[in-house]
């Protein structure tokens, strides 16, 4: 099941980064997203605020990478975008990254973002393309193997994260974001980090969902699929359960495992199949 590995990856990373009171200079991404599972494709408009969190090179350019084939374009006056020639390696980012920033498993393209005199933020970058990295089985030498992917858009489900390079990546710095996913046909829905601030149907019956994360994090997740949703509160925590099949008993069993009192997180998402798998995605 695509969601099985997806949720485990999301949980480990987000929980480790959810530190109360943490603050740092961070890029902000205001993302408007459309997903086309049948075409394994995504379309994105990113209203990007650098907020002084990235250092420009000697020519005044900010360096970022994207998954190959995204064809980004700047639509904000006063900014210019140029492709970077040659392969993308860690030194492409200068002091903004380490040797672990780039990936050997995902094709990348580098770009140079130039502000002209008087340029203002945010700067809008529009892009889109296919992200399709099939699930690969790991751990076959053990009794319990698992499948994983750096990123996949598929009619069975969607997993996008930092490993997918689906958001402009300027190095190893932290980011905050608002993520709005439009035109999903129910029962499809989407989950990310943070708080769900919008969840409604448009006049044509399609779904619009928005997630917002104000705590700096390393990456932006999109976990999507055809789900049945259940919700309840456990103290200060709002608990969501997303199941592949309509099963109120399983949703109740999963949410009952959440400690009462709630802790410091405001949102918890549980995922499962009728075989009983579930995982949690807390607010960053």
Describe the structure.
- The protein has 284 residues and is mainly beta.
- The chain has one domain: Immunoglobulin-like, CATH 2.60.40.1730.
- It has 2 helices and 20 strands.
- The protein has helices at 2-17, 248-255; strands at 27-36, 41-49, 62-67, 73-74, 79-83, 108-115, 123-130, 136-138, 146-148, 152-154, 157-160, 175-184, 188-191, 195-201, 207-217, 222-226, 228-234, 237-243, 267-272, 280-282.
- A hairpin with a 4-residue loop joins β1 (27-36) and β2 (41-49).
- The protein is globular, with a radius of gyration of 19 Å.
- Residues 1-23 and 257-284 have low confidence and may be disordered.
Chain-wise SSE layout:
Blueprint: H1 2-17, E1 27-36, E2 41-49, E3 62-67, E4 73-74, E5 79-83, E6 108-115, E7 123-130, E8 136-138, E9 146-148, E10 152-154, E11 157-160, E12 175-184, E13 188-191, E14 195-201, E15 207-217, E16 222-226, E17 228-234, E18 237-243, H2 248-255, E19 267-272, E20 280-282
Parallel strand pairs: 1-12, 18-19
Antiparallel strand pairs: 1-2, 2-7, 3-6, 4-7, 5-6, 8-9, 10-11, 11-16, 12-15, 13-16, 14-15, 17-18, 19-20
Spell out the key features of this protein.
mainly beta; 2 helices; 4-stranded antiparallel β-sheet; disordered N terminus; 284 residues; Immunoglobulin-like; 7-stranded mixed β-sheet
Compute the average pLDDT: 77
Low-confidence stretches: 1-23, 257-284
Largest sheet: 7 strands, mixed
CATH architecture: Sandwich
Rg measurement, Å: 19 Å
Give the topology string: H per helix, E per strand.
Answer: HEEEEEEEEEEEEEEEEEEHEE
- Structural class, by secondary structure, is mainly beta
């Amino acid at each position: 099941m695509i969601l099985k590995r997806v949720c485990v990856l999301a949980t480990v990373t987000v929980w480790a980064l959810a530190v109360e009171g943490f603050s740092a200079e961070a890029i902000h991404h205001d993302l408007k997203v459309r997903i086309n599972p049948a075409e394994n494709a995504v379309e994105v408009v990113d209203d990007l605020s650098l907020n002084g969190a990235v250092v420009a090179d000697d020519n005044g350019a900010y360096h970022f990478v994207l998954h190959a084939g995204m064809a980004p374009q700047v639509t904000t006056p006063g900014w210019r975008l140029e492709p970077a020639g040659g392969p993308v390696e860690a030194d492409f980012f200068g002091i903004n990254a380490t040797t672990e920033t780039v990936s050997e498993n995902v094709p990348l393209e580098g770009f140079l973002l130039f502000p002209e005199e008087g340029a203002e933020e945010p700067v809008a970058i529009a892009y889109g393309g296919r992200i399709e990295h099939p699930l690969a089985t790991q751990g076959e030498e053990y009794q319990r193997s698992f499948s994983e992917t750096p990123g996949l858009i598929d009619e069975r489900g969607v997993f996008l994260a930092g490993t997918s390079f689906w958001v402009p990546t300027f190095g190893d710095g932290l980011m905050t974001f608002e993520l709005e996913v439009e035109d999903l046909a129910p029962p499809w829905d989407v989950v990310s980090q943070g708080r769900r601030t919008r969840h409604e149907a448009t006049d044509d019956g399609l779904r619009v969902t928005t997630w917002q994360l104000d705590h700096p994090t390393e990456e932006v997740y999109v976990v999507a699929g055809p789900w049945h949703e259940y919700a309840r509160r456990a103290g200060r925590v709002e608990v969501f359960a997303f199941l592949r099949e309509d099963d109120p008993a399983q949703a109740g069993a999963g949410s009952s495992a959440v400690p009462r009192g709630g802790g410091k997180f405001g949102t918890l998402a549980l995922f499962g199949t009728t075989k009983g798998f579930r995982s949690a995605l807390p607010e960053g």
